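Quick check before the chapter quiz. The format below is the same one you will see on the exam, so make sure you can read both the input and the output lines.
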Amino acid sequence: MSHYQFKTAGPLPPPSLPADKLRLYHVDMNPYGHRVLLVLEAKKAKYEVYKLDPLRLPAWFKENNRRYKIPVLEVPTDHGDKYLFESVVICDYLDEKYPRNPLHSSDPFVKAQDRLLIERFNELIKGSLECFDTNFVFGSEQILQTMDIFEKELAFRGTNYFGGDRPGMLDYMIWPWLERLYLMRVVDQRKFDDKRHYFPNFADWGDLMQLDDVVKKHSRSPQEYFDYYKNVKTHSMGFYL
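Here is the expected output.
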């Protein structure tokens, strides 16, 4: 269960932000917003989170966000509070704004490789969506193929995390979907555990990520994810970037 208490966005906009604080607008259980939460926590930024209902967005929010993008990071500037969109863009901004504890590699080539892997990870996201939308009948092949790529990459790097000896940007960018894949243990635990020997490095990486303090701050259990995706007819997983 997430250990962070969200506020709920109401009919009136929140007050202006102080200069040292950020505000995230987030849909509960949305993995793209989950990305931003992890990076906010890793950078030790001062922030607050307002929870949105995607089917009942407040008029003030839609006025400031014509494309209805979620998640959104509200940032105080000398010209008033501004909105940032797109989870990867937001996370890159946070890594530059808070230089302590850098998440991107200082090596430009490694940083570029990590960005390519984040793009490649979209195949697993597509497979996950297909799995959830077809009650786990289709989509698993895409997931396994993508996991194999990341298994080999982790073996090639020879480190516990993609970021080295601690989680980096790539680790946090892909974790929200991997955390959700653990719900398949609820569907068929034996089948889920049998796959572990195909991806030993990736499986060990997942075990370590679950112990990370940043991850634990915003984690949910496999049962919570299973209940959520089973019960909602229109989930937000693929609708917001």
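If your answer matched, good. Strands lie at 7-8, 22-26, 47-51, 72-77, 80-85.
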